[in-house]
Amino acid sequence: MKTILKCISTIEQLDIELFNHLNLGVEIQDFTEPNLSTKETKEIIDGYQKLFKNFKGVKSLHGPYLDLKPASPDLLIREVSYKRYLHALEIATQLDMDYLIFHSQINPLINEPFISDLNNLQAKQFWTKITRETDYRGTIVIENVFEKSPVMLKKYIETVNRPNIKINLDIGHIKARKAGLEEWIRELKEHIAYIHVHSNDGQYDLHQRPSAREVAHLYRLLAKYNLTPPLALEYDFNNIEEEIGRYLCEVNR
To answer: Is 114 exposed, middle or buried (0-12, 13-18, 19+ CB in 10 A)?
Structure first.
């Protein structure tokens, strides 16, 4: 049985009874908004804590990502990034999240080996320090965004080298970079713990509904490489039961 999650942008989109009925998990993305007030943040956390008392599925939280770079050579940027990441870790702890998602923040244009290696070492220092300052016990997953191949992300994750830090493979971002999905899965298979599922036109990150062919292709590759990560559907759809049925049908074929 595949673990399927639906990504939601606000708490109003979480129908506990329906999600439980469908054995559906949830990825909450409320906290990607960088300008929430302290009061708004507390209200959202309180609301989710009440709802999650009766929730049976897998829970994940998408962390902040705008204008952040934990491995920046600029100390002030690192400090701001640290505060944002630590806040997300604290929220994930309060809500007992199974997964917490952060973007890799890798710039593929900075590919000079010395600079790239230095960035990875700074990322290792960042994660070593911040994970010691939180009680979060779930899995942190790092998401590919602008990378044109899996090599840079693999070097990053292997340099960081922490047991609770894995990869969130975003297949929509891969398609927008015109790379082959199998190459990414083959290269990163030991580190993939979570997958964002969506599609696009190969040029823009549109977060469209994948075709039946794309879903079948993903399932074939997961079976080929013996992978069973949770699949988080990161696109809009109206009929939840019908959409989840597409993924469950693939399991039974």
So the answer is: exposed
